[in-house]
Design goal:
about 260 residues, alpha/beta
Length: about 260
Amino acid sequence: MENLKVTLVQQVIVPNDPQSNLDHYTSVLDKIPNTDLIVLPEVFTTGFCSSARNYAEAVGGRAYQWMQAQAVKHQAVVTGSLVVKVGDTYFNRLVWMRPDGSYTEYDKRHLFRMAGEHTRYAMGNQRILVEINGWRILPLICYDLRFPVWSRNRNDYDMAIYVANWPSARALHWNRLLQARAIENLSYVVGVNRVGMDEAGQHYAGDSSIYGPAGELIATSQEPELISTELYADRLQEYREKFPANLDMDKFELLP
């Protein structure tokens, strides 16, 4: 493993205006320092809106092409989730876009029923892992954070990423759960949220954060900005060797 430079993109999202959001992100990303990984929020082209399906992306369409162009420009992986339509089915889908144009997709497993998400989108059923600079990474989406079994490290990842539209009303949960996932899984955890107001007048405080494997807070912010830091592979390895709780984890199998 090499050290990993990560940039979290915490911004206001204009409701249901993909082109405006993409144009804004283009200008924001132009300020990014040298980095390996750029992480955008959940549904970053539309916001978490009940009508976002009207602006769904096609696989390989505009937003995919934009992500690829940014990955090439910055020579970094670009990731975040989109509303994607496949046939007649809609997904809240995370795209992991590499500079070479190849990509991996993860469909949100846990759909936020309190906002009716489960009635608008199909549930994902596959947990995926991706790799960068020798780091094994588990990408997840927002409400997935509340379900530790789905996030459980089976000695198969070094960092978990949660992209979100997580409102201020439950900011306490966001912050505590991100830290808990890091501690219990002996891994770095990255959480990327949005800021500002949505179309329903709901406020988002950001709190995009990076936690280390002992639960230590490495970086956080409540402002619309870029959060860039370098994560050290040797510190992760040293902590796991010093406190190998993973050797005593319960073994289990996830059923359909």
